[in-house]
Amino acid sequence: MPGLPITGTLSYNGYSFDGATHVQTSQTPVRDEANRTVIYVEIAINVTAIIAVRPTDGSLENIRKRLSQDSGPLIYSHKGFSQNLRVNVGGGVTDVKFGPKTDVVRFTPIGDNNAAEVSMTIRTWIPDCPWGTHQRDNGILAFNYDVNYSRDEGGYVTRTISGYIEIALNRKGRFIHRTADQYAEWFKVRPPKGFKRTQSRHVSKDKRRLDFSITDQQIKTRNAYPTKTIAISGGHRLSWGRSKGGSMIHRNSISMNIEPEFGTNPSNAWAWFAAVVTQRMRHTMNRGKWVLLDSLEVSEDLYGMPVSFSAGYRFIGAIRDFIGDSGIWRPLPGDWDLWQTSLSGSMFAPRGLSGLTTYPEEDFILDPCGPDSPITVGKQAKTPPRPVYAKYILQNEQPPPEKSWIKYDTVLRPSRVHPTARLSYMQTPPIDRQDPHQTTGVFAMSDDHRQKNDEIQKSGAPRYSMSLVGHAMRAGHEIPRPKLQAKGQVLEEESDSLFELRTFGNFLGVTVYSARWALNYILDRPPETVSPVGPIGKPDEGIGSSGVAEAPRSK
């Protein structure tokens, strides 16, 4: 039986090929997906040998099984290829791809069951760095990514970064000591300002490779999002019109739909909404106007995160600058850096809120040659933090008296009555000769020319009276009873009246009053002018008018 030279060793998984007749070795550099560098080499050893059973080897069946297993120790030295190739052996290098692995093992019996010719290929994957450089057989072997930019019709950009991390990995019995997913934080991508992020990760079955995708999409908004907010939308609506009673109403309505970060108390969303409403109302008041908050609505998704808010308020007084006084289109408070920082544990975290990671202890190499013990995956999910309640009170402020009138409508109705009498003569009534064919006139004319017509006589001076009718609504202050004031030497006396004052309701901290009245006055002579005593202001500062009514002139 021919033998190998005295020098040199070839053994795999504890069996030495001392009787090898032919050994052929090849080496293939394996490059990363970018084709920029060699990350390891694949060494293939083709061996044909005559093996004979020795007392220490057991049977040929035992040798065959040993040569068929993966990740065994490989020693190949002094064979014209390497001075000392030691894989998965102390003092050597560790295979980076769960090797060495054997290909087809052919056994050709020789004689009885104690010898055979074996043909097989042993493959191993190891780093092969130039002399003088540091060589690793653990950690990251390759990392590459590509970037894709897309732009919509408005110029808004979406950036997608896709890549992978490949690590060196081998087994320890039926377990592994690390996974590629544990390197998810190794690659950090700073998000652009004003972009939201979605991410995905995929861990390969052998846990050697992590594929990832990071998509940053530009948010279509003029204002930075509030902190701890995943999504938000809202609007500010202005309206101007007349009420059923004819008075002018200037209304504002602000609504928002907010999705807070999971684990964040929805009260934080309420605080932000209330702050925006307060900012817009404060803008109006800083311009010398006043507002009254008169409606609020809150809605929650019982099994989701979104919450919705709406608030309505009206301007108290006339508005000259409809757009400017409302504060619409004014920038809202917010900072993109603070927003991104507040979501560093959720939207911008590689593992999201739960921190889910694929750990080595969650994997088990299972085959028919070992136990089928069950394993548990996902034991380490984090519990969201306890939400903190954010307190913010949204309420009205007490307006000054001159800016408190919500509505003030009053009407002056002058009346003049002349004392008049009808005098009839005592005479025989005429005969009514109504002609059914008469086309003019209402009554038939009598043909008795002896009939005398009645006499109409005026006696005394005209009688003058005035009625003051109206209604009003006021915020924070009671409504005083109006009265009539006539100019000149006029004596006015109130004959009968109705004045009703009631509390309309409490509008978020400010009481609103309403009143209505009907006041009747008797005058002893025609006045020069008559005016009601009530809330009169400049047209751009309050509801009201001059309230002047001239007395009717005699013809």
Describe the fold and architecture.
The chain has 555 residues and is mainly beta. It has 4 domains: 118 residues, no CATH class; 97 residues, no CATH class; 108 residues, no CATH class; 129 residues, no CATH class. The chain contains 3 helices and 28 strands. Strands 3, 4, 7, 8 and 9 form a 5-stranded antiparallel beta sheet that branches. Strand 16 and strand 17 form a beta hairpin. The radius of gyration is 49 Å and the shape is rod-shaped.
What's this entry about, in short?
The chain has helices at residues 60-67, 267-286, 336-342, and strands spanning 9-12, 15-16, 20-31, 38-52, 74-77, 85-87, 101-102, 106-109, 115-126, 140-151, 157-167, 171-172, 175-176, 195-203, 209-218, 229-242, 248-260, 290-300, 307-316, 405-417, 420-423, 455-458, 463-475, 483-486, 492-507, 510-523, 529-533, 549-550. It is mainly β and 555 residues long.
Counting DSSP H or I runs of 4 or more residues, the number of helices is: 3
Helicity range:
under 10%
- Counting DSSP E segments of at least 2 residues, the number of strands comes to 28
Structural class: mainly beta
> What's the end-to-end separation, in Å?
152 Å
What is the total domain count? Answer: 4
Please indicate the percent range of residues in DSSP E strands (runs of 2 or more): 35-45%
Spell out the blueprint of helices and strands.
Blueprint: E1 9-12, E2 15-16, E3 20-31, E4 38-52, H1 60-67, E5 74-77, E6 85-87, E7 101-102, E8 106-109, E9 115-126, E10 140-151, E11 157-167, E12 171-172, E13 175-176, E14 195-203, E15 209-218, E16 229-242, E17 248-260, H2 267-286, E18 290-300, E19 307-316, H3 336-342, E20 405-417, E21 420-423, E22 455-458, E23 463-475, E24 483-486, E25 492-507, E26 510-523, E27 529-533, E28 549-550
Antiparallel strand pairs: 1-2, 1-5, 3-4, 4-9, 5-6, 7-9, 8-9, 10-11, 11-15, 12-13, 14-15, 16-17, 17-19, 18-19, 20-23, 21-22, 23-26, 24-27, 25-26, 27-28
